[in-house]
Amino acid sequence: MGKNGATNCPPPLDLTPLIDQVCRNNDQANLLLKDVRIVACFGSRALLVAFLGWTANHASVVGAATTEAEALQLVETHQPQMVLLSDRLEQGNGISLVQRIKGRWPQMHTILLICQEQRQHQIKAAIDACCDGILLESKLGLGMGVAALNAVGGGGIFIDKSLQEIFRRGHEHGAPIEPLTARELEVLALVAKGKGNSKIGSELYISADTVKTHLSNVMRKLQAQDRTQAAVIGLRWGLIDWPEMDWPR
Question: Average pLDDT for residues 179-188, to the nearest whole number?
Fold first, then answer.
């Protein structure tokens, strides 16, 4: 409950003027997920059924569940590239599921839907578990989902703007073991945006192999296990600015 007995619900929203935009966003999301193997785990059966009905390529969804234990079994069996899940599940907990997935398969992408942004302790636990994308369920269909898929699918990260202060909290004073060069910072900023090596090379007018060398140096200096963790560390320590996402039109 909020002040004066009000519940912590999102403000009312008339989506009628945005129907065309929502449909375009859905089409764009389907394109991004076209060749991605997915396990979906939502506590809401209605949301899970809606997701399955909305997904154009049904073969890409290799598993769907509403509980933590079922989802973990599906992930272990099918080894998907991406897991879409909500923090609230019928049994278990979405944040715990993220922690278990990332603990066993750190390269597997996870995108977490948050039902209540006031649950800061749990959100921080998901961030600390290196969840790749975190967004508010109330903003689905309005472009946030597409931006998250675009960033995470490219190897970057996505945190809803209203949650970014939680992301940075307690990590402002870290420092690399050696200073990053200006070029390394440019590469890291594009990694955080979800750009692949070839795209980064094209934007910076350098070869993909040179990008790979810069990334190796960045990961060594930040003591990161992979490019995604390097981007997370760079953002948390304020080495790079939060990326402006390419929103669908």
Answer: 96
Residues 129 and 203 in one domain: no
Phi, psi of 62, deg, nearest 5:
-90, -5
CA distances to 91, 102, 240 from 128, in Å: 22, 10, 19
Q: Look up the domain containing 78 and give its range.
A: 14-168
Residue 53 pLDDT > 80, yes or no?
yes
Q: What is the pLDDT of residues 128-141, one digit of tens each?
A: 888 999 988 877 77
**20-29 contacts at long range (C-beta below 8 A, 24 or more positions apart):** 21/142, 21/143, 22/141, 22/142, 24/248, 25/141, 25/142, 25/143, 25/145, 25/146, 25/248, 26/54, 26/141, 28/146, 28/248, 29/145, 29/146, 29/149
In angstroms, the CA 84 to CA 114 distance is 11
Is the pLDDT higher at 138 or at 211? 211
| Residue 90 pLDDT class (50, 70, 90 cuts) | very high
Which helix or strand (DSSP H or E) is residue 68 part of?
Answer: helix 68-78
- Domain check: are 138 and 63 in the same one? yes
Whether residue 139 is found in the same domain as residue 216: no
